[in-house]
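Exercise 7.
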Amino acid sequence: NEVHDAGWQMGIHAIGDAAIELVVDTLADALTRNPREDHRSYLNHFSMRPSDATMEKMAQHGIHITQQPNFTYTLEGRYVANLDGWRLEHNNPVRSPMDHGIHVAISSDILPIGPLVGIYAAVTRKGMSGRVFGADEAITIEEAIQGYTIKGAYLGFEEDIKGSLEPGKLADMIVLSKDILTVDPEEIMGIEIEQTYVGGNLVFQN
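Solution. The predicted structure, written as tokens, is:
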């Protein structure tokens, strides 16, 4: 409550469904007591899918998510060893919160750093073994790219200067070896980064 009342944006780690529900209830109570129209507070990770009622509450109060779909791929073994059934199939959900109207940004966290694995996993829902986990949680390539760009910029209150290629914004962009929008999704991780621009300056050349 003190942090919320001070006007801060909060980003709170919440991994399990019980933790997610606890954090959402706490944030919703704070926002009901002291409404803030553009707080942009969010849950980081959101690794287990909570109840529909919890996601509806998140949408109602403008509570957002930063999600790491690359974990479905990279941490497959950990999930298989510790989860089963519905929880295993819906690890790192993306489609369901989006369908509830929740703003979902995507990030890499620490493994691996690049976005291509995350885009691949978000689109295919495949782990390293090739197993598909909860195909109903898959999103489109376009949605995954938006998650890494404009939606992340929004959570950083920077959507006016970055996150999309428009006049007046920073030219932060990459040039790929293939058209990611048209390749077979199985080819996504094999796409090479040809160039990287930051603020319009070439900082990497393959």
